[in-house]
Amino acid sequence: MTGNVENSNGSISVDEEVISQFAGHAALDCFGIVGMASLSMRDGLAKLLKGDNVSRGVTVDIGENNALTIDFHIIVAYGINIKTVVNNLVSTVKYQIEDYTSMPVAAINVYVEGVRVID
Fold it and tell me: Which helix (H) or strand (E) holds 19?
């Protein structure tokens, strides 16, 4: 599904994959996040994703009035307060997505799938 943004110059269509890529990279810039996670359906284990695969740990749903609902599956750094990391993620991604797309963010859901020790 695509979101449509209207302005004085015309209409802009933004695909969910573009938003998920941008949101994934914005999330990786947040302190305390090691990477995005992809759940293996076969064994239920979370797999760390980096680089171009970050959008697999992000799900974007475009609802009524182009309101976005974004789900993150993340892996956090060991020893960091998870609530602080999640609050930072939500505020950073909400600001950047709304600034980047001009589409309102209705909800951001964060699922912490694991903890990793950073060397």
Answer: helix 16-28
Element (H, E) at 3: strand 2-7
Q: Which one has a higher pLDDT value, 5 or 108? A: 108
Task: Give the Cα separation of 12 and 1 in Å (integer).
Answer: 13
Q: Per residue in 76-89, pLDDT tens?
A: 999 999 999 999 99
One DSSP character per residue, 32-87 reads TEEEEEEE-TTT--EEEE-GGGGGGGEEEEE-GGG-EEEEEEEEEETTS-HHHHHH
Mean pLDDT value across the chain: 85
The conformation of residue 106, written as its DSSP 8-state character, comes to E
